[in-house]
Amino acid sequence: MSANMPEKPLIPADDAALAEVRRRSRRSFLVGGTAAVLGLLGWRWASTGSEADGISRPLRSVLDANGQLAGEYFSSAHLAPVYPKSRARMPRTNGRVGLKTALDPAAWRLRVTPSAGGAAREFTLADIQALPRIEMTTELKCIEGWSTVVTWAGARFADFLARFPLADAAAPFVNLTTPDGKYYVGLDMASALHPQTLLCYEMNGAPLTPEHGAPLRLVTPVKYGIKHIKRLGTISFPPQRPADYWADRGYDWHSGL
Ligand SMILES: Nc1nc2c(c(=O)[nH]1)N[C@H]1C(S)=C(S)[C@@H](COP(=O)(O)O)O[C@H]1N2
Ligand SMILES: [Mo]
Predict the structure, then answer these.
(1) Residue ranges of the Oxidoreductase molybdopterin-binding domain (predicted)?
(2) Rounded to two decimals, what is the model's pTM?
């Protein structure tokens, strides 16, 4: 399967919402929204409000509102740019939360709890590799300000859920954690089903190394690197928006690009 770009988005775009977003540029929308909300609240409240995550409450509300807009703007019609394979490089290793103990790749399993409840199902790497293999060359963008073009290979999360119907059609969220639970990522279902969201087992033509998340990591180039959880261990489908390691530390929960 050659699919740098999917032939057709898997999820039909919400035409009304997209038309609305296209009418105004995203930037002016967010900047205008921030100014308007701050204007309404008044700067006094903004600067004296109580703090949540070290960010004053009114500013926190604005960040959350922007995150909401980013979530609405986001859809499968919005694809991250793809690059020629010749541009691909190895990125630096960034972030080791949840990777600090040794892992036996042969004993590793992906444990998925169905949204309907019941026992977790376990998958081997071979189970994931049996799904259609997708290769894409996209940019890994770290929120700290660097980025690297990488050729990734793996299975679409959408293909995984199509093959193993573990999530209810209406399941709103996906929660992904390392085997030890120390790093955890939350996604809305639309982002998880995006055609460029992969359960990834290869970088630049070689199996993942331990520091880059062996044996399986998430890649979702419409989001910042913080969402690309390495050493994926468990997946569940909570009814409420799941916690997220970096959102708990003050970053936007969506972290969309
Ligand atoms: N388990 C785990 N996954 C993680 C992190 C981490 O600390 N632990 N850091 C994230 C961040 S901030 C980035 S930018 C990318 C970096 O991926 P790389 O190390 O393959 O370059 O991994 C993400 N996935
Ligand atoms: Mo990052």
Answers:
(1) 103-246
(2) 0.76
Listed residues: CB within 5 A of ion ligand 2: 142, 225
Closest CA to 4 of 89, 81, 91: 81
Both 31 and 78 in one domain: the answer is: no
104 and 29 in a single domain? The answer is no
Is residue 68 located within the same domain as residue 31?
A: no
Range of the domain at 77: 51-249
Residue nearest to atom 12 of ligand 1 (CA): 226
Burial 53-77 (b: 16+ CB within 10 A, else e): eeebbbbbbbbeebbebbbebbbbe
Q: Ligand 2: distance of its center to the CA of 95 in Å? A: 7
Maximum distance among all Cα pairs of the chain, rounded to whole angstroms: 58
Are residues 32 and 75 located together in one domain of the fold? no
Start-to-end C-alpha separation, the chain: 27
Specify the pairing of strand 198-203 against strand 51-52.
unpaired
